[in-house]
Amino acid sequence: MSEVIRERILAALRAVFDPDKERDIVSLGMISGLQIKDGHVAFAIEVEPERGPRLESLRKAAEKAVAALDGVLTAHVVLTAERPASKSPPPPSTPGRAQQSAGGSPPLLPGVRAIIAVASGKGGVGKSTTAVNLALGLKVLGLRVGLLDADVYGPSIPRLLGIKGKPTSPDGRRLQPMENFGLKCMSMGFLVEEETPVVWRGPMVMSALEQMMRDVNWGELDIMVVDMPPGTGDTQLTMSQRVPLAGAVIVSTPQDIALADARKGLTMFRKVEVPLLGIVENMSYFLCPDNGKRYDIFGHGGARDEATRQKVPFLGEIPLDMGIRETSDSGQPVVVSQPDGAHAKAYVEIARKVWDQVAARLDDSGRQGPRIIVQ
User: Fold this and answer.
1) Which of 246, 320, 239, 268 is nearest to 121 (CA)?
2) Looking at per-residue confidence, does 91 or 59 come out higher?
3) Cα(283)–Cα(273) distance, rounded to whole angstroms?
């Protein structure tokens, strides 16, 4: 059945012509990464980098052609063109207000006051769990909060928030964000099967991320938390360039190898002049439920010491705890499932420290947003 739908999609796209080459985009071999699931279609159009900024109309034409097919609920189309870096930094922008995209595209997140990144130098340190509970902690503070899963290759937000199903598009143009516990969220995990790998190149990933910001009806938000992929690669750098981040939170475990990678993340954000909101030490210690004895399995205090050396705030420590693991796996994060517990209170306190810094920047009308300088 999917093969039949695939042929119908390709037949519809054969009626979409490249304006410069005057041939259809299928015969030109421009279609890649076609994925079909439950009426939701996603694919990329590969174009030369220099043509990318002026081919938004081509992308929209392809999206419209596929969306018009019977049985297609939504069509998600991205351009793969990677714009060359500018030799001079872009003009400053107000923190939290998305800049106008190249080529006259609509602003990415016009209704979001502040955007912060949650990042880690390496995987396996609990970054996504921290991002979810931080976002819920900000919600506890009475803020309107969104959560964007920028980890396209390994999206985990749907599972962590216990959300199933697919986003809808009432107007056929913009998706409604998924929602649970009062959080608006979007993730590639809502658009592809959990077991299906996303085999996309860097430019395709960034186009998809831009569409999850620009083509989702986020509404008015006080703050958006972006769960970044681990490491310091193209996604982190490009997000820092294209999104006016109000700050970054670094998550690390106490051991030396994790701190070495966290240090790289700190250095990267400094180079692109994104404010460092602080470091969270995750899996900081383990309290044995049988005897109450404390074990520093990965060491303890390394992230606090690193924060002191780097002259950035230390936001707090979260223990290695079965309750946090169990609530995360079940889609019932500890901040909402055990709101009066010590772990939930620790996340809310971290959220308070983060928001205090972000709010101070928003209230300082004389302060301009970060200027992005990539060397």
Assistant:
1) 268
2) 59
3) 29
The whole-angstrom separation of Cα 346 and Cα 349 is 5
3-state secondary structure labels for all residues of 44-69:
EECCCHHHHHHCHHHHHHHHHHHHCC
- Reported as a single tens digit per residue, the pLDDT across 346-361 is 999 999 999 999 998 8
Q: Tell me the per-residue pLDDT of 61-85, one tens digit each, with 9 for 90 and over.
A: 999 999 899 888 888 888 775 444 3
First to last CA, the chain: 49
Q: Measured between alpha carbons, how far is 51 from 83 in angstroms, rounded to an integer?
A: 9
Rounded-to-integer distance, Cα 138 and Cα 82, Å: 34
Main-chain phi, psi angles of 31, to 5 degrees: -90, 135
Order of strands, sheet of 40-45, starting from the edge strand that comes earlier in the sequence? 31-37, 40-45, 74-79
Q: In the prediction, which pLDDT does 109 show?
A: 84
Nearest CA to 358 out of 25, 49, 115 is that of: 115
Tell me, what's the pLDDT at 239?
Answer: 75
Q: Where are the alpha helices (DSSP H) in the chain?
A: 2-13, 56-67, 127-140, 157-160, 202-214, 234-242, 256-271, 302-310, 322-329, 334-337, 342-363
Q: What is the pLDDT of residue 126?
A: 87
The pLDDT assigned to 90 comes to 37
Q: Which of 74, 73, 82 is nearest to 50 (CA)?
A: 82
- Give the list of residues 6+ apart from residue 178 with CB closer than 8 angstroms, or none: 158, 161, 163, 165, 167, 184, 185, 186, 187, 190
Rounded Cα–Cα distance for residues 80 and 46 (Å):
5
Q: Sort strands 221-227 and 276-281 into parallel, antiparallel or unpaired.
A: unpaired
Q: Provide the token pair at 272.
A: 């692109």
- Is residue 11 within 8 Å of 69, Cβ to Cβ? no
Count of Cβ atoms closer than 10 Å to residue 196 Cβ: 11
| 310 pLDDT higher than 60 | yes
